[in-house]
Amino acid sequence: MSTRRNFLLPIMLALLGGCTGLSSPQGTSPNLYVLDAQPTVPPSPVKRNLILTVNMPQANPGFETSQIAYLRQPHQLNYFVKSRWKDSPTRMLQPLLWQALQQSTGFNAVTLTASSIPADVRLDTVLVRLQQDFTTRPSRVHITLQTQLFDLRTRRVLSIRQFDATEDADAENAYGGVTAANRLVQHMLGDITEFCITATGEK
């Protein structure tokens, strides 16, 4: 009898150990990605005698998150499980917009909304979409930004413009989409800067 117990004991311990391992698997941290496109904005030939402030961008529902969005079929938004943005795209966009506008030298000063310096004009931005579309091959990244310039002195909207662009992903995964998104953002930073300088000069 004791021999049988000695034979069964290691098996029971092994089974218990296996169950314990299944009940508490070790998790893995997700891959974290950033929007860090460096603006390549040439100096503007004109300079507005204005202080422009860059408001914190807002986002449409589904895109106000650090999750990376993608489509497998139309109208159905999904998110990568093992890949995330390091922060929400809107929070990463604000300093990039500020840097691009600063680089243009098209204004007396460019501030962020948290600044104590009173501004003349405010740039409002809404992230309408930022998603990788797998319904095409190769997959494509689609980004849409809605921008508005608001005159803080007269309390009126100066101009509204929507920027919309797509770019083929480098690979059929989250990283391929992230690199394409950064290329799109880099291009849009120049377009938005030009929009701000032009719109603030219109009568």
Give the helices and strands as they follow along the chain: HEEEEEHEEEEH
Distance between the termini: 100 Å
Question: Can you summarize the main beta sheet?
Answer: 9 strands, mixed
- Arithmetic mean of pLDDT: 89
In words, what does this structure look like?
With about 200 residues, this protein is an alpha/beta fold. It is built from three helices and nine strands, in the order αβββββαββββα. It has helices at about 1-25, 90-105, 175-200, and strands spanning about 30-35, 50-55, 60, 65-75, 75-85, 105-110, 120-135, 140-150, 155-170. A hairpin with a 4-residue loop joins strand 8 and strand 9 (about 155-170). Helix 2 crosses helix 3. Residues about 5-25 have low confidence and may be disordered.
